[in-house]
Specification:
With 326 residues, the protein is α/β, with parallel strands linked by helices. The chain is built from 15 helices and 11 strands. A hairpin with a 2-residue loop joins β4 (123-126) and β5 (129-132).
Amino acid sequence: MIVMREDLLKRKVDEMKLGNIGFSELLKQMEDAGGFGAKNLAHAVNIMEKMKRDKCVKFMSFPGCIVATGLRGAIAQMIEKGLVDIIITTCGTLDHDLARAWGGKYYHGSFEYDDEKLHKEEINRLGNVFVPNESYGMPLEKHMNPILEELYKEKKEWSGRELLYEFGKRLDDEQSILYQAAKKNIPIYVPGITDGAFGTNLVWFAQDHDFKVNILTDEKELSDIAFSDNKTGALMIGGGISKHHTIWWNQFKGGLEYAVFITTATQYDGSLSGARLKEAVSWGKISEEADYVTVDGDATILLPLMISALYEKLDSNPAQEDKQNE
């Protein structure tokens, strides 16, 4: 295909004019300004708006670390507002969400603090967040066993998704991801469910109970979604098992139709965390015709901007969704 010079010079770079403007207008100006990562950020919001209006199955994957921050509440709100249909995450999400739902307090800290001193003070450091021992493992040890005993009387084998639904039902915290997911009947899948405090407590409970977690049941449910005729889209934060599970199962249906990926990693070490979404096209995990974008940056900065802009866009024209789906 021959591309003419005039085809390359169709859209000029616009100047930004900032002031008392909303998030959606800010991102529109960032897109029109044509600058580097800002353009991708605006594109990501446009894709997420399409995912919502197109009524596709909306996956969201993320690591547990961001649940130790205030983004926990933002993700819970996304579930409440119908922006998420399926969650795939890590055991750390369960640990931090449950610990905080059960009264654990997390604190502002520093990346540069003396970690040996923190250890002596029984304070765990997660980036620049301080997590005291009494706010993390102890709440899970105290509250999990009574719930597991109750569930064990009902049946001895549970899928991971079923188990998390039952825990979410028993919470009373609107800022909780598990609480909102149970309330909205949104499935949460944690392929590495033993990789954290929640999983360790399951292991300890199983030592003196004939108790099993059947993770293959979770995989069967994801397989059923993959082989359905529904369009699928995904917002993926970070890499690892949660991102891979999202794109892995979607390859069996021809790939995601929409995809947004936020990462701080580089692609040049071959890692999944750094792999651009275009690499997933070669595997068939994202459709060749998909609308997708990779956004480089810290999710604790980018996600609040993206979601705030998306809320504005959806609220400004709520009738458009109904019209497109008549």
